[in-house]
Amino acid sequence: MTRLNLAGQRFRVGFNVVSVPFLRMDGWNETNHSYENFDGIDSWIIRILADYYNFTFELSDCHGQYGMQIENGTWTGIIGRLVRNELDIGIGGVLLSPERSITVGFLKPHWITHYTYATTRTTHETDLFTFLRPFQTNVWYCLLVSLLIIWIIDQISNHFINNCGLIVITLFLLIQQPYHKQQHLNITKKLWLIIMAISSLILVNLYSGNLSSMLTIPEIMEINSIDKLANACQSGQIIPLVLQNSNGLKVLQQNHHHSNEQLIAIRNTFEIVKNYDEGFNMITNAFVNEQKPLALLGVRERLLFGQLKYGYYLPPENDETFFFSSYFAMVTSVSFEYRKQFDMM
Fold first, then answer.
1. Tens digit of pLDDT for each residue in 64-104?
2. In CATH, what number is assigned to the domain containing residue 274?
3. What distance lies between CA 232 and its chain's CA centroid?
4. In a domain, 320, yes or no
5. Is residue 66 within 8 Å of 76, Cβ to Cβ?
6. Are 15 and 27 within one domain?
7. What are the beta bridge partners of residue 117?
8. Which residues in 120-244 belong to E strands, given as ranges?
9. Is 333 exposed, middle or buried (0-12, 13-18, 19+ CB in 10 A)?
10. Domain edge (last residue) among 185, 216, 247
11. Distance, C-alpha 18 to centroid of its chain
12. Which of 17-21, 54-58, 85-89, 115-119 has the lowest mean pLDDT?
């Protein structure tokens, strides 16, 4: 099959630069009317296509507006400009949706990600009962029962022999204190002293090691699943933030009668933000000012790059931390005649 040769044909390419890692542009050169730094996933794809099919392109800034359908049925942003044939191609992390695919043409998705969330990083609060945490509750119960049994045996034995108590010996060894009356002990209690000395050495070392680890690296309770996020929203511990005109907002609004408890808890408590930057700033300010934690819902890649800058908490990527999958693709006008050839790359 003969390769398509567009012989230097010039296309109008609209872009949005708010969508790292899909596009990063800076250093506008007024003389050449071009950007010195043109990088990102979508920039690589458009340049590969340009080299392969021998075409050129001029860039047109859409100022971060991807497009929404307003009441009269028209579209705004990069989608609207494609509909009006002001552009031929749109790049910069354009999200594929059923509504958009009816109006414009999409190439095959080149990036699949998940719609997830990021939260304010939690601070560690001092727990007055931290000294009990090195051992589980069952271990403490067993230790108390053991001391009670030792005390009962000690009381019974003291009816026959008036001597130093086993319970006293045990307590001295547990708190790592020397017992100086060993010469007055009978064979039974000396044997008990040896056994308890070894046992207490193991027990105390385990306890002190675990306690030191907990104090050195405090445990931070993060919201690492959607179930925990929904519970935190329902109890008023955290406020979810959703981008206006986003797929996440549409899912919450369209599933108004959905029986999913997770969506219900988030839908009843969410607030709307204009863009990712506003959400990032709100999360950061909530942490700095020790306000109620916030959770920003969004595409994982955009939240991931924001995490590198703002340092908020992003949960691990698994089935318990994403709401639905998102697909990104380059978009074209309906009249663009080379979409099939571009899809073959």
1. 888 888 888 899 999 999 999 999 999 998 989 888 999 99
2. 3.40.190
3. 15
4. yes
5. no
6. yes
7. 297
8. 239-243
9. buried
10. 216
11. 20
12. 17-21
